[in-house]
Design a protein that fits this description.
With about 120 residues, this protein is mainly alpha-helical. It is about 75% helix and about 0% strand.
Length: about 120
């Protein structure tokens, strides 16, 4: 398990490491694919999958690795809802991706209704 996020300021830093737009856009997918990244034997394959599937987000695999590790840390720290609320509260111009807020809202709705567990 990664180092737990202990406070709101640390959560904001971890969200910045992943990219706040990225947190909103991809949190649902990360939760659904937990088996793949939570297993040390398949984590590197998961990172490679994300890098290849969403080519163009990062210039190289190290950027994707940073994003993946930040997302995992949010999930393992049980801070998903808090992170998604940061996405919803973000300035649209700074966020730069309208779909991030839409995806964050869908994920929060699924979590609150019990349709999604992590």
């Amino acid at each position: 398990m990664s180092k737990p996020i202990s406070n709101h300021f640390e959560l904001k830093d971890v969200c910045r490491n992943a990219g706040l737009w990225y947190v909103g856009s991809f949190m649902l997918e990360y939760i659904k694919m937990k088996e793949m990244w939570s297993n040390p034997d398949t984590k590197s394959a998961f990172i490679q999958y994300i890098y290849n599937e969403y080519s163009g987000i990062d210039d190289d695999i190290s950027g994707t690795t940073t994003r993946v590790n930040a997302m995992i840390r949010i999930i393992e720290s049980r801070k998903v809802e808090d992170a998604l609320h940061l996405v919803l509260a973000a300035d649209d111009r700074k966020l730069g991706c309208a779909e991030s807020k839409e995806n964050a809202k869908v994920t929060l709705d699924m979590l609150s209704s019990g349709k999604l567990l992590y």
